[in-house]
Design goal:
It is a single chain. The chain has helices at residues 27-31, 47-52, 103-111, 118-126, 130-138, 149-159, 164-178, 188-200, 211-215, 230-243, 250-255, 261-271, 282-292, 299-309, 314-329; strands at residues 4-9, 15-20, 39-41, 67-74, 77-84, 89-94. It is an alpha+beta fold. Strands 1-2-6-5-4-3 form a six-stranded antiparallel beta sheet. A hairpin with a 2-residue loop joins strand 4 and strand 5 (77-84). The chain is globular, with a radius of gyration of 20 Å. The two termini are 36 Å apart. 38% of the residues are buried. The chain binds a DNA duplex through residues 34, 156-157, 159-167, 169-170, 226-231, 233, 257-263, 266, 279, 281-284, 322, 326.
DNA sequence: CGGCAGGCGGTTA
DNA sequence: TAACCGCCTGCC
C-alpha cells in the first residue's frame, strides 16, 4: 500500500482515520452500485468548508461537490466516510464505541478494498474492448466491498424479485427488531445527535440478526418486516447455517434455501471475495444483449463468455457493466 | 386495475 | 434439464 494514514479524534472523541492519497474511488459509485444496502448519502452541509478551501464555485449549481459523504454500517461498525475528490483524501469517522486500534489499518482498508490496484484492473479489462472502456468510464470509481458473509446472505436473499428501496427498508426493520444494538461513542448528547442523523437517513444503529436468532423465529415473527415469501427462505437458511456452518463455495451457497445462481454469485463476490463471480440479473442480461449481442435469454452463453473473457476479473467486469446500464437505462 | 422490481422453488414434459 | 408459473409486497 502506498497511502498514508493519519489518526485523530473529533469533538465527540470518535476516532477519525485519514487516508491519502487514494485514487480510483468514488463513494456514490461504490455505495450505490447495488452491492450493499446499509450506506446513505449525506447532503453535504459543508458548503462553507468548500468555500474556505478556496472552492468559490457556489455560483455554479451544477458544479460537482468537492467532497462526498456517506454514513453507514458495516461489519458491526457505524461510520461516516468523507472523500475529498480534489485532494484525494479519504476520512473515516467511527461513530460507534466498539473501535479497535487496527480499524484504520485493517478493518476499513479491507472493507473498502483499498489495497487493490484498480487502475491495473481497468487497464486489463479495457484492452481491446471498447464496450468495456465505455462501461468503465461510467463507474471508474467503483470498489468492490469486502462485506460480512452472513450479511450478504441475508441481503441477497431479500433482494430477489425486489427493488432497492424496499430491500433497504426490510434490512433496517430486520436489524431494528432482531439485531443487537451497536453502542455509539461520546456523550449522551452526541449519541442522541448521531441517532437522529441515522434515523433521518433510514438507518437503525443495530447489527443484523445472527443466524442463531433467525433460526429460532417463526415466519409470523417476521411479518412486521414485510419480507413476503422470502421470510421462509431466511429462516430455512439460518437453520441450515446453524446446523452446518457458513458456506464457502458456490455450490454450498446454491444449496441454501432461496439462493439460486444469481444470488450465490452475489454472495460469492461481495461476501466471500470470489472475484471471478459474474452474477447475471436482468440488467446484466440487458447490457450483454445490447453491448455483446447476446440473446437476452442466453444466460448460459453469457456465463461462459464471462468466464472465458474476464476470468479472475469477472466480478469487476460485472460491476462496471451493471453500473453502466443502470446509469443509461435505469 | 395490471405491471413491475437486481430470482427462486416447484412442477411439468 | 429446460421451460414455465406463481409469488409477498409496495409503488406506479
Amino acid at each position: 500500500m502506498d497511502y498514508l494514514i493519519t489518526y485523530k479524534r473529533n469533538a465527540a472523541h470518535a476516532p477519525v482515520y485519514g487516508y491519502a492519497p487514494i485514487s480510483d474511488i468514488n463513494l456514490r459509485e461504490t455505495f450505490e452500485c447495488g452491492q450493499c444496502f446499509r450506506w446513505r448519502a449525506l447532503g453535504s452541509e459543508d458548503a462553507s468548508e468548500a468555500d474556505e478551501a478556496g472552492g468559490a464555485k457556489k455560483s455554479d449549481g451544477a458544479q460537482a461537490r468537492a467532497t462526498e459523504s456517506y454514513i453507514g454500517i458495516a461489519r458491526g461498525h457505524i461510520a461516516r466516510i468523507d472523500y475529498d475528490k480534489k485532494e484525494k483524501h479519504l476520512h473515516i469517522t467511527e461513530l460507534g464505541a466498539n473501535t479497535n486500534k487496527t480499524d484504520a489499518t485493517e478493518l476499513w482498508p479491507a472493507y473498502l478494498d483499498l489495497n487493490r490496484d484498480y487502475a491495473a484492473i481497468k487497464r486489463k479489462l479495457s484492452r481491446g474492448d471498447d464496450t468495456m472502456k465505455t462501461a468503465i468510464a461510467a463507474g471508474k470509481g467503483i470498489r468492490i466491498l469486502k462485506q460480512d458473509l452472513w450479511e450478504t446472505i441475508i441481503s441477497f436473499i431479500i433482494s430477489q424479485n425486489n427493488n432497492i428501496p424496499r430491500i433497504k427498508g426490510c434490512i433496517e426493520k430486520l436489524a431494528a427488531l432482531y439485531g443487537e444494538p451497536i453502542e455509539l461513542a461520546g456523550t449522551e448528547k452526541n449519541k442522541a445527535e448521531e441517532i437522529a442523523i441515522l434515523d433521518e437517513v433510514g438507518l437503525t444503529p443495530n447489527e443484523l440478526p445472527t443466524s442463531k436468532v433467525l433460526a429460532g423465529l417463526k415466519e409470523e415473527d417476521l411479518a412486521p418486516v414485510r419480507l413476503g415469501y422470502r421470510a421462509r427462505y431466511l429462516i430455512e437458511t439460518a437453520k441450515a447455517v446453524e446446523e452446518d456452518c457458513l458456506p464457502e463455495t458456490f455450490d454450498d451457497l446454491n444449496k441454501l434455501c432461496g439462493v439460486g445462481p444469481k444470488v450465490a454469485n452475489c454472495i460469492g463476490l461481495f461476501g466471500l471475495g470470489k472475484m471471478d463471480s459474474f452474477p447475471i440479473d436482468v440488467w446484466v442480461r440487458r447490457v450483454m444483449s445490447r453491448m455483446y449481442k447476446f440473446d437476452e435469454c442466453d444466460v448460459k452463453g453469457m456465463q461462459a463468455f464471462a468466464e472465458a473473457k474476464f476470468g479472475d476479473l469477472g466480478g469487476f467486469a460485472q460491476q462496471y457493466l451493471f453500473y453502466y446500464i443502470r446509469e443509461l437505462e435505469g
